[in-house]
Design brief:
about 450 residues; alpha/beta; 15 helices; 8 strands
């Protein structure tokens, strides 16, 4: 009925003015008075409706051949205006109600998402009831933590985020360490007059939190790291690795929303000390051995009460595929860390990270060391043997070096037999040792 022309809408069919019906159409049972009222009501209603239609701005009657005759009175115009006002009110209420309903619907949808994804319950956030969001790899520098982390990340799909520290001459496969975490750990240590290789035994986790609250440290890098570690909504489990975490772990545990699991690994103390001496300038074997004791001691002490998976650099080298698979299985089944995307590690990943030549050289070195003189037998096949040194035999430096080596070997052998993981294990008292090591 509507003609859609270029201008405003026009009614193609004129609207006739209703007229009263003839008396023949009246009900036979109606009286004359009742019939008169019925005729008046029907006629008035039709006239008012016609006035309402013609008064709408976009529905004006066209000026065609049969112009509609408008016979309205003051009463009809007033009624039309009332109907228009009512129509506007109804339309406004409809728009407001529709908008309100849409807003409420969106609010319910947002609340549902927040409840499922950002709630305090691990099950709601990750879809896994009682699961941990990730784990931290603890171990002394030069102890194989980078190789182990690379195998876990590339083999199973654990997530590190980034950016990461790039590869270097001493670690061509990469460190798998977040730059922001390393920088923040350095800031924690510096605020307490310490560095990764100096005065780390005196570090206090609560002191670092006080420095953060007092504004003595910026914590910009820490905020960047926490955005990743505390935002594990529908994400793979994370892997966080930095040897400094052995020292600063108590601080980070207070900053994390959820407690992580721990993967602890260690390497022979003499191999670590030799590696540090080769990499760092003016670094002695005695200093490397002392750091080995402190880092491993703090790693075990600071992770007490957390779910831990233990491994060794030697075990990863000797049977990489099965050892790394065991670590992953214990993380998932024992510590209830969210299962990673990949169930098994492939031979291709293992061959990429483990150089057979390194394993061969390690076997040759062990065979050569077996010919050296025994310094002390700790039992269970754990033996401390002589090693090459730059200090003359029986000199004070040589004697201090050997004594530090024997202390480190005691801890190493206790790791091997499991005693070192006991909560009441008696660690070496380096604070009152007769020769505190000075590190340049």
């Amino acid at each position: 009925l509507l003609g859609l022309g270029p201008g405003p809408f026009h009614l193609s069919v004129p609207i006739p003015t209703p007229r009263p019906p003839p008396p023949s159409q009246l009900p036979s049972s109606a009286t004359w008075e009742g019939a008169r009222k019925a005729i008046w009501f029907k006629h008035s209603a039709s006239r008012i409706f016609s006035q309402f239609i013609s008064s709408l701005p976009l529905l004006q009657p066209c000026h065609g051949r049969e112009r509609v005759q408008q016979q309205t009175n003051k009463r009809g115009r007033r009624m039309a205006r009332r109907i228009q006002r009512i129509a506007r009110v109804v339309l406004t209420c409809a728009v407001v109600c529709f908008t309100r309903l849409s807003f409420i619907k969106k609010q319910h949808a947002i609340a549902k998402v927040l409840k499922q994804e950002v709630g305090g319950d691990v099950a709601a956030r990750n879809g896994h009831k009682g699961k941990l969001p990730g784990f931290i790899v603890l171990g002394m520098h030069r102890s194989g933590t980078s190789m182990l982390s690379g195998l876990l990340v590339k083999g199973f799909g654990y997530e590190t985020g980034g950016p990461l520290i790039g590869a270097s001459f001493d670690n061509e496969k990469g460190f798998y360490e977040r730059i922001d975490v390393v920088l923040q750990n350095d800031e924690f240590l510096t605020a307490q007059q310490a560095e990764w290789s100096f005065n780390v035994a005196a570090y206090g986790g609560e002191n670092a939190l006080q420095h953060k609250q007092q504004g003595n440290i910026t914590f910009e890098e820490g905020e960047s790291a926490l955005k990743f570690l505390n935002n594990r909504v529908n994400a793979p489990p994370y892997l966080q690795k930095d040897p400094r975490m052995c020292i600063t772990l108590p601080t980070w545990l207070k900053l994390l929303d959820e407690t992580p699991a721990i993967v602890f690994t260690y390497r022979h103390p003499l191999e670590v000390a030799m590696s540090l001496k080769h990499r760092e300038q003016n670094f002695s074997i005695e200093q490397g051995l002392r750091l080995w004791i402190i880092y491993n001691m703090r790693a075990i002490q600071n992770s007490e009460g957390l779910c831990r998976v233990f491994s060794t650099n030697e075990a990863v080298f000797q049977d990489t595929l099965n050892e790394v698979q065991r670590i992953k299985n214990e993380l998932t089944e024992k510590c209830h860390v969210i299962a990673p995307p990949n169930f098994k590690i492939s031979e291709e990943v293992v061959n990429k990270f483990v150089d057979p030549n390194l394993q061969h050289n390690s076997n040759e070195r062990n065979a050569k060391d077996a010919q050296r003189r025994v310094l002390k037998d700790f039992g269970g096949g754990c033996i401390a043997r002589e090693f090459e040194s730059n200090h003359p035999e029986k000199s004070p430096d040589r004697m201090a070096e050997v004594e530090m080596f024997l202390m480190a070997m005691q801890v190493f052998c206790d790791f091997e037999n499991g005693k070192g993981y006991s909560p009441d294990y008696e660690w070496p008292d380096l604070a009152h040792w007769k020769r505190p090591t000075r590190i340049n």
